[in-house]
Specification:
With about 425 residues, the protein is mainly β. Among the domains are: about 25-120, no CATH class; about 350-380, no CATH class; about 380-430, no CATH class. It is about 0% helix and about 30% strand. The relative contact order is 0.06.
Length: about 425
C-alpha cells in the first residue's frame, strides 16, 4: 500500500500504486496534451482534469473519477466523503495528503484540501540569497522549510512539520443519550473544538415500552422506536395477569423486574441489577500525571469505558530525528496537544542498503558498507597470484609478489590510496 504522505508521482504507474490520479493534476511543466494526461482525464487549459467538472454535477453530488456521484459517498471506506477526497478509490488519500511535484525552480508538494489538489509549492522565483529560507504550506496546516543554497538557487524542501489533526471546516459527530448527537468542528488551525452538549435527544430509549389502563382491567401499550420517539398506543386489550413478572432494561445496560398488579397493569420496576459502570456516551476527564492538561475516555454502547486519550509525551514544537531508509533521517515535530506528529520525508539516504551485493564484470563482488556507501569500484586487469594478506592501511607493503599483468615479477606491492581493502599496482623488479 502506498504511504499516505506521498502517493503520487510524475509517472502513470508505480509498483503497487498503478493508475491512481487526482481529479485535477497539473503536469510538472505547466502544460499538457490529451495524450499526456492520465487515463480518464483530458487536457483543459494546460491542466489534466477529470472528464466531468464540478459545474457539470448537480447539487449534492461531486465529481469522482469522471462520474458525478453522491457527495457523501465514501467508495474507499476511509471516512472521507467524495466531496472532500482527492481520490475516493484510494484509502491512503484524503485531506492533508501530499505528493511531490516539480517546477522550473525546484521540487515541491501539492496538498489535498477540500477535495482538490493545491498548486505546487515549488518556488517560482529561481534566484535567492544564499542562506535565505522560505516556508511553504503543506499537509494539515503544516509548514515545510526550504533554504537557499550557496549557488543562489533554492534547495530541496524540508519535512512537513507542525501538522494538525483535521481539515479546517470539517465537522465530527458522535451519538449520545436518547438518539442525541455531540458535534465538533475543525478550526482554522486544524484543531478540533471541544464536543458540544448532547443535542436533539428523543423522548425515550429505543425498545422501551410503557402501558396505561383502559376499560376494566385492560391496558394499552406503546413502544419506543429506533428514532427515540413513542409509537402509537395499541388497541385496548387484556392487561397482564396479576402476579406475572417481566424483565425490563434500566440504566447503564442493567435489567430490572416489575410485577403485574391487581389492576392488570405492570407495576414499577424494582432495583436495577447487572449494571455497567457508565452510561453510553458519558465522557470522563482527568488531569494527565504531572501535566496541566486533561485526557478523556468515553463510555461505549456496552456501558464500559473506552481507552483514555493520549497524554502529552513531548513539548509542543520539539523535534526529534530517527533513522529511515538507507542510512537516512526523518524528522517529526511535537504537536500542540503534546503528541508526536507524523514523520517527515526521509532525507540524506545513502547509495545502497547495508549488505546489498553487486557482482563485478571481471569476477568478485562488492558489498554495501554499514554507512550505506559502496566500497572501492570493481578493479579489473591487476589480478595477483598470491595476495593473501589484507590491505589494512596505506603504509602496508607486500614484497616479492607475482602479478599476472607484470613481467618480470614485481618486487613490492603498495596499498592503494583511498581503498582500505584494495591493493595498488605492482611495482616491477628493477632491470
Amino acid at each position: 500500500m502506498c504511504p499516505r504522505h506521498a502517493v503520487f508521482a510524475a509517472v502513470w504507474a508505480i509498483a503497487g500504486c498503478s493508475a491512481i490520479f487526482p481529479l485535477e493534476q497539473p503536469d510538472s511543466t505547466g502544460s499538457c496534451s490529451d495524450a499526456g494526461c492520465p487515463p480518464g482525464q483530458v487536457c483543459v487549459d494546460g491542466v489534466c482534469a477529470g472528464s466531468c467538472l464540478d459545474a457539470d454535477c448537480p447539487e449534492g453530488t461531486a465529481c469522482s473519477h469522471g462520474d458525478c456521484v453522491d457527495e457523501t459517498l465514501d467508495e474507499d471506506g476511509d471516512g472521507t466523503p467524495a466531496r472532500d477526497d482527492c481520490d475516493d478509490r484510494d484509502p491512503d488519500v484524503g485531506p492533508g495528503s501530499t505528493y511531490p511535484c516539480e517546477g522550473a525552480c525546484g521540487s515541491g508538494l501539492r496538498t489535498c484540501a477540500a477535495g482538490r489538489w493545491s498548486d505546487c509549492s515549488a518556488p517560482t522565483d529561481c534566484e535567492c540569497t544564499p542562506g535565505e529560507t522560505r516556508s511553504e504550506d503543506c499537509g494539515l496546516c503544516g509548514d515545510a522549510e526550504r533554504s537557499c543554497n550557496g549557488d543562489g538557487r533554492w534547495g530541496d524542501l524540508g519535512p512537513c512539520d507542525g501538522q494538525g489533526e483535521c481539515e479546517p471546516g470539517d465537522s465530527g459527530e458522535q451519538s449520545c443519550g436518547n438518539c442525541g448527537r455531540l458535534s465538533r468542528t475543525c478550526d482554522e488551525g486544524c484543531r478540533w473544538s471541544t464536543w458540544s452538549a448532547c443535542e436533539g435527544e428523543g423522548a425515550c430509549s429505543p425498545g422501551a415500552t410503557e402501558d396505561r389502563a383502559c376499560d376494566d382491567c385492560s391496558s394499552e401499550v406503546r413502544s419506543c422506536g429506533l428514532d427515540c420517539r413513542w409509537g402509537d398506543w395499541s388497541e385496548c386489550g387484556a392487561g397482564c395477569a396479576p402476579g406475572d413478572i417481566r424483565e425490563v432494561p434500566c440504566a447503564r445496560c442493567g435489567r430490572a423486574t416489575s410485577t403485574c398488579g391487581a389492576n392488570c397493569l405492570w407495576g414499577p420496576a424494582l432495583e436495577c441489577e447487572d449494571q455497567g459502570i457508565c452510561e453510553p456516551g458519558d465522557v470522563e476527564t482527568l488531569m494527565c500525571p504531572g501535566e496541566d492538561v486533561d485526557h478523556q475516555r468515553t463510555c461505549n454502547g456496552e456501558c464500559e469505558w473506552g481507552e483514555w486519550s493520549l497524554c502529552p509525551t513531548c513539548e509542543p514544537g520539539e523535534t526529534e530525528r530517527a533513522s529511515c531508509g538507507s542510512c537516512g533521517q526523518s524528522t517529526r515535530t511535537c504537536q500542540e496537544d503534546g503528541t508526536w506528529g507524523p514523520a517527515g520525508q526521509c532525507t540524506g539516504e545513502g547509495a545502497c542498503h547495508p549488505g546489498d551485493l553487486v557482482v563485478c564484470e571481471c569476477g568478485g563482488q562488492l558489498v554495501c558498507n554499514k554507512d550505506c556507501s559502496w566500497p572501492c569500484p570493481c578493479t579489473c586487469g591487476n589480478d595477483y597470484t598470491d595476495v593473501n594478506a589484507i590491505c589494512e592501511d596505506q603504509d602496508a607493503i607486500v614484497d616479492r609478489l607475482d602479478c599476472f599483468s607484470v613481467d618480470p615479477p614485481c618486487i613490492e606491492l603498495h596499498c592503494g590510496p583511498g581503498c582500505a581493502r584494495e591493493w595498488g599496482d605492482c611495482i616491477a623488479c628493477p632491470g
